[in-house]
Amino acid sequence: MSGKPVLHYFNIQGRMESIRWLLAAAGVEFEENLLMGQEDLEKLRNDGLLMFQQVPMVEMDGMKMVQSRAILNYIATKYNLYGKDMKERLLIDMYTEGMADLFELSFKVILGPPEQRDATKSLIKDRAKNRFFPAFEKVLKSHGQGYLVGNKLSKADILLTELMYCVEEFDASLLTNFPLLQALKTRVSNLPNVKKFLQPGSQRKPFTTPEMFEEMKKSFKF
Amino acid sequence: MSGKPVLHYFNIQGRMESIRWLLAAAGVEFEEKLIMCQEDLDKLKNDGLLMFHQVPMVEMDGMKMVQSRAILNYIATKYNLYGKDMKERLLIDMYTEGMADLFELSFKVILGPPEQRDATKSLIKDRAKNRFFPAFEKVLKSHGQGYLVGNKLSKADILLTELMYCVEEFDASLLTNFPLLQALKTRVSNLPNVKKFLQPGSQRKPFTTPEMFEEMKKSFKF
User: Fold this and answer.
1) Average predicted confidence (pLDDT) for chain A
2) What's the number of CA atoms in the CB half-sphere (13 Å) around residue A155?
3) What is the least distance, in Å, from the CA of A189 to any CA of chain B?
């Protein structure tokens, strides 16, 4: 037992990637138990380690944590990435939940029917460009500070940076009209812990294409 | 300006109902501005009151709060319904996020394609009976206390009670094998604030059927 958190998930970005980003940005070393086949998932279930029979699951501080938002909130609180009071926490939650809408669409590209992929990708680009990125650019412009909330790095900045890398995979030009978002992305990417995480060989997972997911599914009974 | 929170949403349960439950259980009087047609929604958007152009939106404490989870977390914190420390908050979040999976399926019945309604309803019943209710019954059994976390009413108990009323609409027998959940439902329902909320004439919204939603949609450009 190393004392490090252990992340249980498939060998893809999926719903664990935001947790990987947050731990990495907080400078927390972690181990991964990658689920490579149905048997691995069954073992976790049969051992009673998954409260709702689902992953992500993170073993940390003596607990088997499930549900990605619960895990992210715990990590953010523990490592002071959740603002200084309830009003800052509200802002961080509002912004993070907006981002979650876009992440959900990116999951839908992979999980949804193939004939809907192009439509979902168009929706991602449209929502990023016309709804979400303008909202976050406006926040940064309104206070002129380097981070979204309270002039301090938080869960919101880290997940927005992750999101920006994600949507660029769909359209590299999406950040063109958002100089403050680009600056935030650069600023967060240059933090030593994040810089290390962005380098090859880290625990960051490659962008998951539908084809990669189809290949992975063959080892599972989804 | 009465100082009461103002809830902006359609005249249905939808993503605002959990917020209504939580405020009601906390004994907080609130006003509602019901959005009856597209012009009402456009006005909110054009006035710049919706950060991501979406409702729910709750005006409270001088803020225009959006994203239902952010709003619920703020209310829970403010009214001491979020546990006493970060470990209790984690448990409350884990349980609440599990419930959210079932609530999402109930939205899918209304929002998804008609030909998938029966399949989604079956999935709700299956997941409630075989995944989620057993998990929550196990929590109550494990500590023998009257509430899910910390022997004290929290967001988790209130939303689970709401969820139990919701899934009963799909199958009244779903709670049969879960005596502790039934006891929790009764306990929470008998709290004076909740009892009042459950009576006719309160701001609680009726169970939304797909037909009701189809009718409502006629006044909107969804």
Assistant:
1) 97
2) 32
3) 26
Domains and CATH numbers, chain B: 6-79+197-210 (3.40.30.10), 86-191 (1.20.1050.10)
Question: What stretch of H or E contains B29?
Answer: none
pLDDT of residue B4: 97
Contact with chain A for residue B128, Cβ under 8 A: no
Kindly report the nearest CA distance between residue A86 and chain B, in angstroms: 7
CA–CA gap between residue B158 and residue B71 (Å, rounded):
15
Contacts with A90 from chain B: Cβ below 8 Å: 63, 65, 70, 73-74
B87 CA: distance to closest CA in chain A (Å): 8
pLDDT digits (tens, 9 = 90+) for A78-115: 999 999 999 999 999 999 999 999 999 999 999 999 99
CA B116 to chain centre: 23
Cα-based distances in Å from B138 to A48, A61, B151, B179: 12, 22, 15, 11
Let me know: does A180 contact A141? Beta carbons within 8 Å: yes
Of A70, A78, A135, the CB nearest to B97: A70
- Can you give A64-126 as a three-state secondary structure string? EEECHHHHHHHHHHHCCCCCCCHHHHHHHHHHHHHHHHHHHHHHHHHHCCHHHHHHHHHHHHH
Alpha helices, DSSP H, located in B128-154: 133-143
Mean pLDDT along residues A138-142: 98
Within 8 A by CB and 6+ apart from A222, the residues are: none
How many CB atoms lie under 10 A from the CB of residue A209?
13
Joined tokens for residue A1: 């037992």
Number of CB atoms found within 10 A of residue B115's CB: 7
CA-CA distances (angstroms) from residue A2 to A27, A49, A201?
16, 19, 21
Smallest CA-to-CA distance from A135 within B57, B51, B71, B50 is with B51
**Whole-prediction pTM:** 0.97
Closest CA to A155 of A87, A80, A104, A56: A80
Interchain CB distance below 8 Å, B93 and A69: yes
User: What's the CA angle centered on A104, arms A200 and B103, to 5 degrees?
Assistant: 140
Q: Which of B31, B72, B35, B36 shows the shortest CA–CA distance to B50?
A: B35
Compute the distance between CA of residue A114 and CA of residue A167 in angstroms, rounded to an integer. 19
| Token output for A178 | 């958002």
